[in-house]
Amino acid sequence: MKNIHGGDIYNNQIKLDFSVNLNPKGCPRELSDAVANAVSRIGEYPDTWQNEARAQLANYNGLEPANVICGNGASELFMAIVRMIQPKCGLVLAPSFYGYEYALNAAKGCVIRWHSLNEDEDFSLNSVILEELTGDVDVFFLCNSNNPTGRIVDSELLTQIIRKCEEQDIWLVLDECFVELSKTAVSMAQKVNEYRKLIVVKAFTKLLAIPGIRVGYALSDKENIGLIRKNLPEWNLSVFAEEAVITGSKLLMDSSFISDTHEIISKEKAYLENELKRLGIKVFTSEGSFLLVKAEKDIYTALLEKGILIRDCSNFVGLSKGFYRIAIKNHEENKAFIESLGEVL
After folding, report:
1. Entry pTM
2. Measured between alpha carbons, how far is 147 from 92 in angstroms, rounded to an integer?
3. Which of 28, 114, 276, 314 has the smallest count of CB within 10 Å of its CB?
4. CB proximity list for 328: less than 8 A, separation 6 or greater
5. Largest CA distance in the chain
6. Other residues' Cβ atoms within 10 Å of the Cβ of residue 54
7. Are 343 and 337 in contact (CB under 8 A)?
8. Which of 3, 7, 64 is nearest to 205 (CA)?
9. How does strand 323-327 pair with strand 89-94?
10. Cα–Cα distance, 15 to 257 (Å, whole number)
């Protein structure tokens, strides 16, 4: 089976995993302690209504609890949204996150329409996308910042996309799982009560470096949230995920965690960009927390032999052999990565 995600540490002997884009700060101690303490609740059912979790997320995003629903990671929410919409045609950028294609393929008879991004333009999204937003499209999956390119959508263009989707009766699923990890990306969470067809999906997976816990959430108007909930299991959050949501929301509101994260990512991304270019690797523009690169040599296999995993992007629609995605980690790990890459090149 062809690998379709990063993080495949189970079939390889890995010392450093640069294939997943987690916050280089790592999981905050307060959060890991809260999750560990949740062991005392394993004899209880989690709250099927997610009351406290939704209240904390609503507070963090400046909305009401009725605008929020949690999922077992963003992936579960993508599937639930597709089940709710039952689309016949879905629009997806190429390249972009494979999970949208996976979810759309679960809808019987759904055709996926691809909007190709141009390598010569560093895979930036421009106003041409507005021409693709026609009445025969049921849903548009848009990632900001885009995975695997790291490009953000200009806020003015993003507003135009939201309005055009509303005019054409197209559901816009805006994936903001990386939005807080980009200093320049703008969240559209505050727009969900203004536009009926807008659904914003976010997660703590990358921001708080907790992919093993699976915490995602959707923001939309309360009617949409009710419909999404009908397509989710009754108990889709464990007590550990509940604690992660509650503690994580409070942490993000009451600390400099995000600004500190931006500082680290900015510094380490500049370091990696310079070193990769010095080694003859093509580095594409990224406003996100990871880098898309292109190399003539098969650096994936060569680095894997050294116990370093990167994301081979050859199976992304719109990319080919030679494209790789590299996470930004702490300086010690980034330095070790560059030293190993220099050896294989």
Report:
1. 0.96
2. 12
3. 314
4. 21, 24, 265, 268, 269, 272, 289, 290, 291, 334
5. 56
6. 23
7. no
8. 7
9. unpaired
10. 27
Selection from 299, 316, 320, 342 nearest residue 18 by Cα: 299
Reported as half-sphere exposure (CB side, CA atoms, 13 A), residue 233 has a value of 9
pLDDT one-digit tens code per residue, 130-177: 999 999 999 999 999 999 999 999 999 999 999 999 999 999 999 999
CA distances in angstroms from 128 to 116, 124, 125, 149, 160, listed in the order given: 10, 11, 8, 18, 11
Q: Is the pLDDT of residue 14 over 80?
A: yes
Sole residue written with tokens 């190709």 = 116
Euclidean distance between CA atoms 183 and 320, whole angstroms: 29
Q: What is the pLDDT of residues 39-62, one digit of tens each?
A: 999 999 999 999 999 999 999 999
Taking the alpha carbons at both ends of the chain, their separation in whole angstroms is 29
CB atoms within 10 A of CB 271: 15
Token pair of 175 as six digits: 């994936």
Helix orientation angle between 74-85 and 222-229, rounded to the nearest 10 degrees: 100
Q: Dig out the tokens for 22 from the structure.
A: 């987690």
pLDDT per residue as tens digits for the range 203-219: 999 999 999 999 999 99
Distances (CA, A) of 107 to 87, 89, 103, 162, 296: 7, 10, 7, 23, 38
Helix, strand or coil for residue 37? Answer: helix
Q: Tokens 């406003």 label which residue?
A: 287
Q: In what order do the strands lie in the sheet with 311-312?
A: 282-283, 290-294, 323-327, 311-312
Alpha-carbon dihedral of residues 285, 287, 289, 290, nearest 10 degrees? -10
Amino acid at 261: T
Give backbone dihedrals phi and psi of 69, rounded to 5 degrees, phi first: -145, 135
Q: Is the CB of residue 159 less than 8 Å from the CB of residue 148? A: no
Average pLDDT, the chain: 96
CB 169 within 8 A of CB 197: yes
